[in-house]
């Protein structure tokens, strides 16, 4: 229970810092007016594999996806994001902004009046992908990072197959194609396991 409260608090704090605003050309688009150490906008999210259910199960055996982000310019933040390892937990969030560009967020007002969080899904990192789209093994991580150029990084992630199954039952909910933010927690305080 305490972990749930801490995660919720971390996400709210991060969203205040990111300042999600409505884009002038569409309410579905987000303009990020700020930044947060533990959050980045999702550039692309696509499914890689949705395995068939095991015998006697209804949900898929495994759901994997590729998560694409653009790294920040600061070297220390880049290294933190590049050092995500296998089994680290991150949260994928769909934010539907309620306020126009330039609006100040007031921490004294209720959170849900300023930011609408449509969905939060946890996922577990499988690994960073190299230029050929293969997961970099832990032992080769530092050496392989030297070969990756540019600011864009792709991670292979495992999603909760039971939650995926529940989401697919709701025809009105299209969570995975509207995800727009990835949030990680401070490794020193994070004791959450997906």
Q: How would you summarize this macromolecular structure in one to three sentences?
A:
The chain has 194 residues and is α+β, with helices and mostly antiparallel strands. It has one domain.
Key features of this structure:
194 residues, alpha+beta, six-stranded antiparallel β-barrel, 8 strands
If you had to describe this structure to a student in words, what would you say it looks like?
The chain has about 190 residues and is an alpha+beta fold. The chain has one domain. Helices cover about 20% and strands about 35% of the residues. The strands form 2 sheets. Strands 3-4-7-6-5-8 form a 6-stranded antiparallel barrel. A two-stranded antiparallel ribbon has the order 1-2. Strand 1 and strand 2 form a beta hairpin. The mean pLDDT is about 90.
Topology, element by element:
Layout: H1 2-18, E1 20-23, E2 26-32, E3 39-50, E4 63-70, H2 75-82, E5 89-97, E6 115-128, H3 141-147, E7 152-159, H4 161-169, E8 181-184
Antiparallel strand pairs: 1-2, 3-4, 3-8, 4-7, 5-6, 5-8, 6-7
């Amino acid at each position: 229970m305490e972990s749930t409260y801490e995660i919720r608090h971390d996400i709210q704090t991060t969203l205040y810092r990111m300042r999600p605003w409505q884009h002038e050309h569409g309410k579905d688009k987000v303009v990020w007016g700020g930044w947060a150490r533990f959050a980045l906008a999702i550039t692309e999210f696509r499914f890689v594999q949705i395995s068939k259910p095991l015998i006697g199960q209804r949900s898929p055996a495994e759901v994997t996806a590729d998560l694409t982000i653009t790294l920040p310019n600061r070297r220390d933040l880049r290294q933190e994001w590049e050092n995500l390892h296998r089994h680290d937990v991150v949260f994928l969030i769909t934010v539907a902004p309620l306020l126009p560009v330039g609006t100040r967020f007031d921490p004294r007002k209720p959170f849900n009046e300023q930011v609408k969080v449509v969905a939060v899904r946890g996922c577990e990192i499988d690994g960073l992908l190299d230029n050929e789209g293969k997961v970099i093994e832990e032992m080769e991580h530092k050496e392989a990072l030297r070969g990756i150029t540019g600011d864009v990084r792709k991670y292979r992630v495992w999603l909760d197959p039971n939650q995926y199954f529940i989401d697919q039952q709701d025809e009105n909910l299209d969570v995975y194609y509207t995800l727009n933010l990835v949030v990680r927690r401070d490794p020193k305080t994070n004791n959450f396991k997906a």
